[in-house]
Amino acid sequence: MTLRFTTDHEWLRLEESGELTVGITSFAQEALGDVVFVQLPDLTSFEAGAEVVVLESVKAASNITMPLSGEVVTVNGAVADEPELVNASPMDAGWFFRIRVADPDAFNNLLDEAGYEQYLADNA
Known about the structure:
Helix content is 21%, strand content 35%. It has helices spanning 26-32, 77-81, 85-88, 113-122; strands at 2-5, 10-14, 20-24, 35-39, 45-46, 51-57, 61-65, 70-75, 97-101.
């Protein structure tokens, strides 16, 4: 399983199909607190940086941006029905959507786990 991370605290997992599953890191869900609402994106194309998911927690509202340009092909309806999955299982059952990216090589330019851990340490 290949994981990459963004400096916006999102993780991307490369699936066997070539699609990328997107969620937020444990660090991000801890910073948000208890998630009480998730609004998922439409199944359409977005440019990198576009706001695609709205999260509301007991602390604040937050937006998840599209990490790479591409098309949202699947959403995880379970997190809309049970927003607490984002806190309980941010790196597994709490994922938000899957994308088919416009440039598959862009995935390799994201942070690997060691790079993300270093980013967290440098910005603590």
